[in-house]
Amino acid sequence: MATQVKTYSYPRIMTRSSDFSIRANGKEVAMLETSAGPFAAFSCDGPVEIEIGLPAGFHENLRINGVKATSGDDIYLFTTHASGILFR
């Protein structure tokens, strides 16, 4: 059985990231701007593949929740059991 992913709704007053996009097992997840950095939250009942769209030309040694992501052009991919993503 495939891992189930549940996304959350946020009030319109919360600022969405205009630079990053995120999908969990192919499902779009809201990416919010916070004082700690871009943040996304979802729930899952098993491992999920995360795809993060980056701004054009953004190439950096990116760690997400302490996990080094693998780069492919302007997309980072990794698998996690975590249900929230915080960029550092």
Structural class: mainly beta
Output the radius of gyration. Answer: 12 Å
Q: Looking across the biggest beta sheet, what order are the strands in?
A: 3-2-6-10-9
- Taking the alpha carbons of the first and last residues, their distance comes to 33 Å
Percent strand: over 45%
Shape: globular
Number of helices: 0
Concise synopsis of the structure shown:
With 88 residues, the protein is an all-beta fold. It is built from no helices and 11 strands. The strands form 3 sheets. The chain has a 5-stranded antiparallel beta sheet with strand order 3-2-6-10-9, with no helix packed on it.
Characterization of this structure:
The protein is mostly beta strands. It contains no helices and eleven strands. The strands form three sheets. The chain has a five-stranded antiparallel β-sheet with strand order 3-2-6-10-9, with no helix packed on it. Strands 1, 4, 5 and 11 form a four-stranded antiparallel β-sheet that branches. Strand 4 (31-34) and strand 5 form a beta hairpin. The mean pLDDT is 75.
List keywords for this structure.
single chain, mainly beta, 11 strands
How is the topology of this model organized?
Blueprint: E1 5-7, E2 21-24, E3 27-29, E4 31-34, E5 37-44, E6 48-53, E7 63-64, E8 67-68, E9 70-72, E10 75-80, E11 84-86
Antiparallel strand pairs: 1-5, 2-3, 2-6, 4-5, 5-11, 6-10, 7-8, 9-10
